[in-house]
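seq as requested:
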Amino acid sequence: MSICSFHPRCMTETEPTLAELAAASGLEPRTIRSWVAGGLLPGPRSRGPGARYPADTLERLLAIRGMRDRLGMPLAAIRQELLVATPEQLQAHAARAAALAPEPTQPAPAASSALDYLRGLRERTAPEPMAEAATPSPRPLPADTPESPPSHQGSLALPPTGFEALERRLAVTRRPPARKARAEEWLRLPITPDVELAIRGRLDAEQRARLERCADLIRDILLGREP
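struct tokens:
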């Protein structure tokens, strides 16, 4: 059965859709899209299911198929040929695809097989359960060796792991927080612009009054004012 029910020249005056290109060339739409993405074919002029392609797309599409299926050329060589081919050479390549059968369609996988595939994928990626570590049985002690205390018989102390080991390590290396020094109280009594009387410690009202009188006396002495 021929893949083309009409000659490519019939579509040179109109811009075909993707469905029309697939029907006239016998190729699957996904094949046409892949060739557009690879730069072998021009892209559609608009978007959407009704998008149309340039009028000469069908002839170029048949030429690509003729070179691939009749001459066995890889797509890389076809791309180079399309760069230098004349219109007459493209028509000759397109004529080679006239008697080719339509491209076989690949049926979509059945729902059951898809579910089986996903189920098998989950089973392969699921983590395997960790086997429990076998506790070694205690070796028999010689007859002249005293037995261990009853509380330790039948058990073997294993080093801690995971968070338990981390907590123990932090408890050993952690230093106690340094105690903050108490805020010291200072009483500063100005005497002259360059001299002041500074007293450290908490003072009551009577002590503060005495020190203020002392500051006044010192000020009078420094300034030459005898009391």
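The longest strand covers residues 186-192.
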